[in-house]
């Protein structure tokens, strides 16, 4: 019985030590995450967008003056005047991105005013964060003012993309 009592007390000590280690690790992780959060005061104001096409060229845009902000996009990625842009966010090692690029290029070649633009997520991490991109490929339909009109995650089907563009092109 004495041996059994010692074994159970060692097990209890080991369990308490493991729980203490997990608790310490959780506290350390919480402190590190808190320190990594950017200071909101350090973000440049929207009026100071920086030179066009640079990483500081991010601005919030609203579809109507005084309306709610519907997207954040650099000016260099917006559609040309009077057109629409199919903006593909992709990565270098993404196999689906090649298939997506082929569908987008095919659709754009048949529709005047629709252009295809591609952004490597590794090169523009601030854009990925601001747009809430979670997976590649992600395709955005963007108007000339930089407003996101539609979003597709994964390889878009040609018919679905045409169905998305149809109403936008008629009303836009």
Q: Would you write up a description of this structure?
A:
This protein has 172 residues and is an alpha+beta fold. Helices cover 42% and strands 17% of the residues. It contains four helices and six strands, in the order H-E-E-E-H-E-H-E-E-H. The strands form two sheets. It has a four-stranded mixed β-sheet, covered by helices on one side. Strands 1-2 form a two-stranded antiparallel ribbon. The protein is elongated. Mean pLDDT is 76; it is low at 40-70.
Strand content: 15-25%
Measure the end-to-end span: 84 Å
Cross-sheet strand order for the largest sheet = 4-3-5-6
Largest sheet: 4 strands, mixed
CA radius of gyration is: 25 Å
Helix-and-strand structural type = alpha+beta
Helical fraction: 40-55%
Low-confidence stretches: 40-70
Q: Any idea what the shape is?
A: elongated
Topology order in helix (H) and strand (E) letters: HEEEHEHEEH
Round the mean pLDDT to the nearest integer and report it: 76
Per DSSP, the total helix count is 4
> How many strands?
6
Question: Keyphrases for this structure?
Answer:
single chain; 172 residues; alpha+beta; 4-stranded mixed beta sheet; two-stranded antiparallel ribbon; 4 helices
List the helices and strands and how they pair.
Elements: H1 2-36, E1 60-61, E2 71-72, E3 84-90, H2 95-110, E4 114-120, H3 125-131, E5 138-142, E6 148-153, H4 158-171
Parallel strand pairs: 3-4
Antiparallel strand pairs: 1-2, 3-5, 5-6
